[in-house]
Write a structure and sequence with these properties.
It is a single chain. By secondary structure, this protein is α+β, with helices and mostly antiparallel strands. It is 39% helix and 12% strand. The chain contains 10 helices and 7 strands. The chain has helices at 6-10, 20-38, 95-107, 120-126, 137-143, 161-168, 188-209, 224-227, 230-237, 248-258, and strands spanning 48-52, 58-61, 77-80, 113-117, 146-149, 173-176, 180-185. It has a 7-stranded mixed β-sheet, with helices on both faces. Helix 6 links the parallel strand 5 (146-149) and strand 6 (173-176). Helix 5 packs across helix 7. The radius of gyration is 18 Å and the shape is globular. The protein starts with 5 loop residues before the first helix and ends in a 6-residue tail after the last helix.
């Protein structure tokens, strides 16, 4: 565990001062931020993940200005759906993050977690007219539940919200054109696993395209008949368990081996 530093002295511990449900949500979301940093999906401080506190209409979001490998359970900021702060904090929140996440949380009551990234692979695929192609086993799981949202500039305008929500629909994956990737999940673990699959699908596509092109006949696309089995095969491959549940405990153990300060 890291020794106390200036940052830790700025943050009041919420352990034992909030409900058990809120503390668990804080732990899981802090872990997600640390994992995004570990997998190098972070974009300095400019992307965001949110989690709804079960049984409430309150949400947790990152303190704007902290690097993702600095975020802890207690540093996360509690807000309502209008973006109003519900706790004292020395940090602001990302206004673009709030617009995107409040739109999704308001419309998708089945979702606890919304994750958004600006990875190089994701942005590169988002800039392609055909978007994500059926080039890998990873991609068939995404294509079974994928939407696209056209770029409207930095997400600061509330008027964009209905269009973003409509483009996401009931899907688990959304590619934001010329912008990045978004996933949702009934749990933080589910949203993280979805982002892993989406990001990996994009990475494979960019690598494959560096060696050949679909139009030139050098890349082999998976037939639509197989793509349509993606959701069914994903359930079979994970033994019918809840999305993310097989990987999440091991990922938390990995974080603890590196640095367990995210738990504080």
């Amino acid at each position: 565990m890291n020794a106390p530093n200036e940052l830790s002295r700025m943050i009041t511990s919420f352990e034992g001062r909030v409900s058990a449900e809120e503390w668990q949500a804080r732990l899981e979301l802090a872990a997600a931020y640390r994992l995004v940093a570990l997998f190098r999906w972070d974009d300095l401080v400019f992307t965001h993940i949110t989690a709804k506190i079960p049984g409430t209409e309150h949400y947790l979001i990152n303190p704007y200005g902290l690097m993702f490998d600095e975020i802890t359970a207690s540093s996360l900021i509690k807000i309502d759906i209008e973006g109003k702060l519900l706790q004292e904090t020395p940090f602001p929140i990302n206004p673009a993050g709030f617009v995107i996440h409040s739109a999704v949380h308001s419309a998708r009551h089945d979702v606890q977690c919304v994750m958004h990234t600006h990875t190089l692979n994701g942005v590169a695929v988002s800039a392609q007219k055909r978007g994500l192609l059926p080039l890998s086993q990873f991609s068939i799981f995404v294509l079974a539940s994928l939407g696209y949202h056209d770029y409207e500039g930095v997400a600061l305008n509330d008027q964009e919200k209905p269009r973003l929500v409509a483009d996401l629909g009931q899907n688990s994956f959304l590619i934001l054109r010329n912008h990045g990737l978004l996933t949702v999940g009934k749990t933080v673990a589910a949203a993280f696993q979805a982002m892993y699959i989406l990001e990996t699908s994009c990475a494979v596509q960019i690598r494959a395209q560096s060696a050949g092109t679909v139009d030139g006949g050098e890349l082999v696309e998976i037939p639509g008949s197989i793509v349509r089995l993606g959701a069914e095969q994903a359930r079979a491959a994970t033994l019918g368990t809840a999305p993310g549940s097989l990987i999440w405990p091991g990922l938390l153990r990995r974080l603890d081996r590196i640095d367990d300060s995210w738990r504080h």
